[in-house]
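Subgroup meeting minutes
Present: P.N., E.W., G.H.
Scribe: E.W.

1. P.N. recapped why we're keeping a running log of single-chain structure predictions: easier to compare across weeks, and new members can see raw inputs and outputs side by side.
2. G.H. added today's entry (479 aa).
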Amino acid sequence: MSNCLLAKDIQNYFPVVQKFFPSAERVGALEGTPASAPVFAGEDILGYVFYTDDITPMPAYSGKPISSLVGFDTQGTIRGVKILSHEEPILAVGIKDSDLQAYVSQYNGVTMSQRTKIGGRDREGYKALDGISGATITVIVINASVTQSLHKVIKARNIQAVSQTSSNAALVAAIDAMPIWFGIWEDRKFEISLLVFSLLVLTGIMVFQDWLARHPFLLTRVRNFYLSFTLLFVGWYMLGQLSVINVLTFFTELTHQFSWDTFLVDPTTFVLWGFVAITIILWGRGVYCGWMCPFGALQELLNKLAVRLKLHQFELPMVVHERLLAVKYIVFIVLFGLSLQSLALVLPFIEIEPFKTVITLRFDREWPYLTYAIALLVIGLFNRKFYCKYLCPLGAALAIPSRLKLFDWWLRRRKECGHPCQACAKECEVQAIRHTGEIDANECHYCLDCQVTYWNNHKCPPLVEKRKRRERRQQRVAL
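Output recorded in log:
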């Protein structure tokens, strides 16, 4: 499927029009408001064709509309839909063209008196369409652009369907009146409510982190449960894996005609990014990377299993580690530079993120993508969150604004940390604590392991020394 804008002369698509109308002999010029072109067999009009992006240019996941050619007959029944061009990341790489064609073929036979919806079953006045796994938002946008454009053209051509009832007509007029994102939020209100509740719970964990750190057994159980929830519900169920493409789309929108509709069309992503924006101001990037990233959660859980199975863990020498930290920033800068020219240029390189393979498409991809993703997960068994530390451009993008956090609500340190105590630095498996004792806010994933040590008078050397002095005094008093 081409990702570039194609020539819009309707005559160029006459072979496609003939697939919609096998007896078609010619197609007229685009005319009227909104514009559509009549299809002829001799002097008889068989129907009309139009471009969706000329009539209802809805921004999709990429922030750009999807261009489709739609044909319908004189009774208001769709005869065919063809996707002409798009810049959708999920469709450009990851979704087979046959899957996309199978989806749009479902519009054949849909009448103007029917409402179409993604998923469910057919019922009176409704036509249920099977979606595409991993591309839910995109197909919702395709559906809305096809149906809303169709109703506008039918109204302009003054076509009346025999089977259309007044109630159906009123119902259809209400798809047209509401913004597309409103219906999406309405359909997913339960999932969105649960997601918002989970984010409030995570906020509570951050606020009461000192108390939790003093109860390590409870903290461990809470963290394992939350990581599992993130992977299973936020990731594999809601497909709520943020990506660097979201960041690039946002900057692209800022430099063009900005519209909130571009972002509201995906409620999961919108809610998560709102949460990220708030937590970056309060705590930095680590809250998302350490708790709410589905791929990060999968790495973390697998590494915990590896540790339990006593698989050997290795850490790179600090000098190598510090050099490799720069790689993800370089990757982000390259992607950002390409996006300034066009988001379409970025799409092939977004595959450095294994998120689409592992989370969005749930490992249902061709072997090169699977090999890359599985290799990263295997490395993560022996080196905690290897991908996150060294390769993740999203992590780099989040680390940059983390420097602007307004409050010093940071992890606790003691004056002895790094001078001479190195206990937390040695325990930190993402190597985010410098030998001088400071925590690198750009690299910390907020796992709270160091805070458990901070409050533990059997692990933190300064506290251990204080405890021993106190115990000696108590022994002397007892004697």
